Amino acid sequence: MKVLAAEFLTSAVDKDTGAGWPAEGPPEIGFAGRSNVGKSTLMAALMQRRGLVRTSSTPGRTRLINFFRVEIAPEGGRAPGERKEIYFVDLPGYGYAKVSKAEREKWLPFVDQYLTERGSLRVMVLLVDPRRDMGLDETEILKYVQQRGVFVIAVMTKADKLSKHERKPAMEKIKKALGFPVIAVSATEGDGIDELWRRLVVAIDRPDV
Fold it and tell me: Tens digits of per-residue pLDDT, 168-177?
């Protein structure tokens, strides 16, 4: 997939505070996962733009909903009819964040508002770190999003941190916990990025999502 343009749009707590969320229009792809799972790094790799998404080694730095505009086309395709505009939406990480419990609880209402009320949300990318045991964080947010009619794609991040013989068992473990297949991705090495793009394009074009 060729990324023709990518830009940061805005950060917002909810749709009515300050400038609020961008007007609904292009299909949106949300990115959710535990703090420090690699959301920002993965989004930067998908958008093919270094430095566009702020990354941090400190869990819990993403405390707002961040919107990015992305224009894509098939490799070699630049005709207007081949172009597609989408939004990437970076949601605050959950769990393991080095912030107070009270501050984490403030995030929940506006994330819930986005998941519940945002009609442009078509796909959710659920990121899972294979080096951490899965728990209610992943399974509960999966059920919650699916109940709202949003198509979910599971991604195992940081695949480069595992040896080749460790990857398959890790993927099978995540698949068993979530109930559907998972894509192994290494944003630093580029593994799985093309496959994920193909899945995303198919998902946002589905009439039932």
Answer: 899 998 888 8
